[in-house]
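Field: sequence (string)
Field: structure_tokens (string)

Example rows 1 and 2, in order.
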Amino acid sequence: MPNVALDRVYYMRIVLGIIAGTIAGFAIAPGTDQGTAVGMALGIAIAFFLISVVIGRMFAKGQPKEVQKKAGYDGIVPFIFMNILAMVIVYTALHQGSILK
């Protein structure tokens, strides 16, 4: 029987990855140097991941200890993937005119 708390954590991380990537896509301007852009993207991603860890632990309250531990980091790969995907799509959609020049 699948654990509902872990499923909720997994999908919540996907949604927060999309939100974090969207915010990063809006926050990075075309003229931003690479170090600043990477720092902003990582800062936003880390902030949202820490928020997701807190929410994931709240979802897993009352579950066995092993489920609570797994809830802290379950779904990290989809979070990273969706974060990067959303950031690239939003940035490209917003700044495609300046990118193609």
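Row 2 begins here:
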Amino acid sequence: MKIAFHAPLKSPDHPVPSGDRQMARMLIEALRLAGHKVDIASHLRIFLRDSSQAAFSALHHEAEREIERLRALWRRDGPPDAWFCYHPYYKSPDLIGPRLSAEFSIPYLTVESSYSSRRNQGAWKLAQDAVAAGARQAAVNVCLTQRDRQGLEATIPDGRYAMLAPFIDVMPFQSLGRAARDGFRLIAVAMMRPGDKMDSYRMLARALELVVDMPWSLTLVGDGPARSEVQNVFSPLPAERLDWAGEKPPQAIAGMLAGADLYVWPGCGEAYGLSYLEAQAAGLPVVAQRTGGVPEVVRDGETGLLPAEGDLVAFAAAVRRFLADETLTAQFGERARRFVFEERSLSAASRRLSEIFDVYVRKMA
């Protein structure tokens, strides 16, 4: 099928790296692996930073111009077979795809659409109305977490839903061996910015203060506007235990993970977190919180430990458990790697998308 792909929050070609951009790119690769021809239909960013009516109106005007451009293009060259929208939500609704899909009678699909009634404020309510309308129209809403599916079903019980587990490209980890290292090394990979990321850094620093009696070192991979604040919250810890690696290109991350023993990241406000899958693909167990979509990517008690959300003492105890037992760490790491390679790879996602298309899309195209 010829698929028009749109990610209203961040185009796959956006210059700033993020989990959203990474997942958009991987979805395109999974679709292509399944035999589809995928084109990025629009690079227009539809992002409503605050619930401003004026801002929402301006986005609508930009979307109208994009609709006119695509309408003319499709009338000349023919429409695609389907429109595939990644991650519409209350700040970033798809204001293009549903209109054109209805006009040209092609299937409309969403992936990682989300809806939360507590966001129904000001222009965000208008944006959520657009998200809900798109979900109702969709031939299928592909959900990456049960939380997203439940949020949609609560508002649109008659919608069509299918599950696709979060996944990564395991190729960079395929021939990766465990790198030689001195001592027990922890690692975390995340941007340094205010909000949820800062909350996770703050919790991690406080938890590590509770295990400072044990031997370990921590590599922090990432950078961003909150770097100085992150450094400040880690200042009570011995400086010699901290390796500030800074931002690294994606191709370097796999090797850095392979040089560590344990991935530690609380995951405050985490939708699911692709970094958890990358760490496990490198053979690392994970310590995170049992929150949001994290249980969708880490198997508690098998590939990592997920203490309750906000339980700082339990988080520290989980880290201590791995620090004290190298055999346990190795067992969890082996299971983690097998889990990602067998169930969360690009090829596994491609097969699952083919199943979803066969059930929900091909009969409408």
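free_text_note (row 2): The longest helix spans residues 53-77.
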